[in-house]
Amino acid sequence: MSSTGCICSAARFQRWDDDGHCATCNRDLSESQIQRRVMGILCAGTGVVLWRNNIGTAVYRDDNGSVARTVVYGVGNPGGADLIGGFRGRFLAVETKARRGRQSEDQKQFQEIVERVIGGVYAMVRSEREARELLERLLAIG
């Protein structure tokens, strides 16, 4: 297996294995590929609504090159989930991870806020199986 990530087009990329590899080319999937597929599974006529939660910091400089202002963006930054939305009145946060990805301390803190403080659902998804299990969990508690 190549160390290069999956190069399949969206049309060719149909499913991925539980070990984080594309079932077509057997290469590791990127987080963005996983996110698109998770959204497709969870939002396909199920009532689940998700948006991509871009997180980061933008630094704007003045004409002299000095930092004029810094803008922090994204829901729950730092640590906010990759996908946020809702299902039947309940907040939903989905963190997607590639095969080797690990949850940061900030992400763990965000998970605790979602689950314990606001009573929402938080899930970390690495595979198609886990996305389908999350959908079943949502339908069961919905």
What would you say about this model in short?
The chain is α+β, with helices and mostly antiparallel strands. The chain is built from three helices and six strands; from the N terminus they run H-E-E-E-E-E-H-E-H. It has a four-stranded mixed sheet, sandwiched between helices. A two-stranded antiparallel ribbon has the order 2-3.
Question: Tell me, what's the shape?
Answer: globular
Query: Can you tell me the CATH class?
Result: Alpha Beta
Q: Provide the β-strand percentage band.
A: 15-25%
The biggest beta sheet reads: 4 strands, mixed
How many β-strands, per DSSP? 6
Succession of helices and strands:
HEEEEEHEH
Supply the number of helical segments.
3
Helix coverage percent: 25-40%
| Distance, first to last CA | 41 Å
Structural class: alpha+beta
Q: What is the CATH T-level topology?
A: Trna Endonuclease, Chain: A, domain 1
Give the strand line-up of the largest sheet. 1-4-5-6
Indicate the CATH architecture.
Answer: 3-Layer(aba) Sandwich
Q: Could you say how many structural domains there are in total?
A: 1
Q: Provide the low-confidence segments as ranges.
A: none
What integer is the average pLDDT? 88
Kindly describe this structure.
With 142 residues, the chain is of the alpha+beta class. The chain has a single domain (31-141), classed as Trna Endonuclease, Chain: A, domain 1 (3-Layer(aba) Sandwich), CATH 3.40.1350.10. The chain contains three helices and six strands. Strands 1-4-5-6 form a four-stranded mixed β-sheet, with helices on both faces. Strands 2-3 form a two-stranded antiparallel sheet. Strand 2 and strand 3 form a beta hairpin. It is globular, with a radius of gyration of 17 Å. The termini are far apart. The model has no long low-confidence stretch (mean pLDDT 88).
